[in-house]
């Protein structure tokens, strides 16, 4: 076991995945650049706050509805083509946002970006699942999440520096950066085939030899079914409730002026906790398996979110946010690595990854709606309590799933045996 851990720590990261890590940072940097100003940009077209929130939600909604199509496209055309196409589609969407003249145009342009986002997200996950060495999937999943986290942290800082130049410029910068990222990924993945000077026919035949893991095969795995439940809970808590309910609760608890500061600090503390966990969680899941980190991470996440509704002080808010970030950072890489285990090395898992991504997006969409309704009708305490119960469901799903003795080949064999 010690020898295997040492090999996992020293195993080189494939060049294609290294490029994906850089591209992930660029994409997240741009997203962090425009995310804080997007609602304000929508309001500048003479619409209310409700309409402004729809601009944010439309992106997640189009991601959700297009995920099955993106999974099919990845299976038929391959990950590199769909990844580059998705990034370019988001680039076009972002550049259109910079030149729109009314709210309706902004809504359409932003919704278009959701289609591209789900294309490159599923493609990137599929490439990592197929190319990552078996003994270091958790570490690579952690590095990929860390790249997004660094970009999301650096983006708002850069946005603050650009604020005096207007709200349209960040969209132009992000669009240009996405085009650059797409070019780099296209060239890097193209070089992987360049040494092979065989005919185009043999290249097509090699592509056909990549086994496609169907959704039916993936669902037959208990680990995958558990990941669907925990993915839904993760999206509900770590994306939906964190980004919507926690800022609103801070405003209700501390008032408009102090509440904005507390909300911003809370999100920053969550990111710091997330980043701290990512420093060790990827290697941990390669060392001890996926189940224990998922159970620990989800438990820490839902307990801290549930406790958030009971705090009445600034210090309590920060402590709960930091602990929730640690939980999310522990859970994320293990959960993604578990799905990659089900797919297996050298296989195309676009459809299975699309199903997992849909559950996460569905949780991030439903979570704020349900929690917001409970907060309006009853209390924030009940809203956070219901959210904690959703997280508990994710824990129970993993407790009921049988614990495989081996990682990751036990899951690969279960998929391969299904006709």
Can you tag this structure with a few keywords?
single chain, 419 residues, mainly alpha, Growth Hormone, Chain: A, 2 domains, 17 helices, 83% helix, disordered N terminus, disordered C terminus
Describe the structure.
- The chain is mostly helical and 419 residues long.
- The chain folds into 2 domains: 11-210, Growth Hormone, Chain: A, CATH 1.20.1250; 214-419, Up-down Bundle (Growth Hormone, Chain: A).
- It contains 17 helices and no strands.
- It has helices at residues 2-10, 15-34, 38-43, 49-77, 79-99, 103-131, 137-162, 169-191, 200-208, 215-219, 222-254, 256-288, 291-308, 314-343, 350-377, 380-400, 409-416.
- Helix 11 (222-254) packs antiparallel against helix 16.
- The chain is globular, with a radius of gyration of 21 Å.
- Residues 1-9, 193-207 and 405-419 have low confidence and may be disordered.
Number of helices: 17
Order of helices and strands: HHHHHHHHHHHHHHHHH
The domain tally reads: 2
**What percent of residues are in strands?**
under 5%
CATH superfamily of the largest domain: MFS general substrate transporter like domains
Characterize the overall form.
globular
Number of E-type strands: 0
CATH hierarchy: architecture of the largest domain = Up-down Bundle
Q: Tell me about the biggest sheet?
A: none
- Radius of gyration, in Å, reads 21 Å
Oligomer: single chain
Query: What share of residues is helical?
Result: over 70%
Structural class: mainly alpha
Distance between the termini: 33 Å
Overall mean pLDDT stands at 83
Low-confidence runs of at least 5 consecutive residues: 1-9, 193-207, 405-419
CATH class of the largest domain: Mainly Alpha
CATH topology of the largest domain: Growth Hormone, Chain: A
């Amino acid at each position: 076991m010690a020898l295997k851990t040492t090999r996992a720590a020293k195993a080189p990261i494939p060049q294609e995945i290294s490029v994906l890590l850089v591209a992930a940072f660029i994409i997240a940097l741009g997203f962090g650049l425009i995310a804080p100003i997007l609602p304000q940009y929508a309001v500048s077209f003479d619409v209310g706050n409700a309409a402004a929130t729809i601009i944010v939600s439309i992106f997640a909604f189009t991601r959700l509805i297009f995920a099955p199509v993106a999974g099919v496209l990845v299976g038929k055309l391959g990950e590199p083509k769909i990844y580059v196409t998705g990034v370019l589609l988001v680039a076009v969407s972002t550049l259109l946002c910079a030149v729109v003249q009314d709210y309706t145009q902004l809504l359409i342009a932003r919704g278009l970006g959701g289609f591209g986002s789900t294309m490159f997200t599923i493609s990137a996950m599929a490439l990592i699942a197929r190319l990552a060495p078996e003994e270091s999937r958790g570490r690579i999943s952690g590095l990929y999440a860390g790249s997004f986290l660094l970009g999301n942290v650096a983006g708002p800082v850069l946005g603050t520096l650009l604020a005096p130049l207007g709200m349209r410029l960040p969209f132009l910068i992000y669009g240009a950066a996405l085009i650059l990222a797409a070019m780099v990924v296209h060239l890097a993945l193209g070089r992987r085939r360049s040494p092979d000077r065989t005919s185009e026919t043999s290249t097509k035949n090699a592509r056909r030899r990549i086994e496609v893991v169907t959704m039916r095969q993936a669902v037959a795995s208990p680990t995958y079914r558990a990941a669907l439940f925990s993915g839904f809970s993760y999206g509900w808590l770590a994306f939906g409730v964190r980004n919507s309910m926690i800022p609103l609760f801070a405003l209700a608890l501390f008032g408009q002026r102090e509440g904005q500061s507390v909300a911003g600090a809370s999100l920053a503390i969550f990111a710091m906790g997330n980043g701290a966990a990512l420093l060790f969680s990827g290697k941990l899941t390669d060392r001890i398996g996926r189940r224990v980190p998922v159970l620990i991470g989800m438990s820490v996440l839902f307990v801290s979110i549930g406790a958030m509704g009971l705090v009445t002080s600034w210090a309590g808010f920060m402590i709960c946010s930091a602990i929730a970030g640690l939980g999310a950072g522990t859970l994320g890489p293990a959960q993604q690595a578990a799905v990659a285990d089900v797919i297996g090395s050298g296989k195309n898992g676009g459809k299975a990854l699309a199903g997992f991504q849909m559950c996460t997006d569905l949780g991030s969409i439903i979570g704020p709606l349900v929690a917001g309704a409970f907060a309006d009708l009853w209390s924030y305490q009940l809203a956070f309590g219901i959210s904690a119960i959703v997280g508990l469901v994710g824990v129970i799903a993993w407790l009921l799933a049988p614990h495989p003795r081996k990682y990751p080949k036990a899951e690969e064999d279960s998929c391969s045996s299904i006709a």
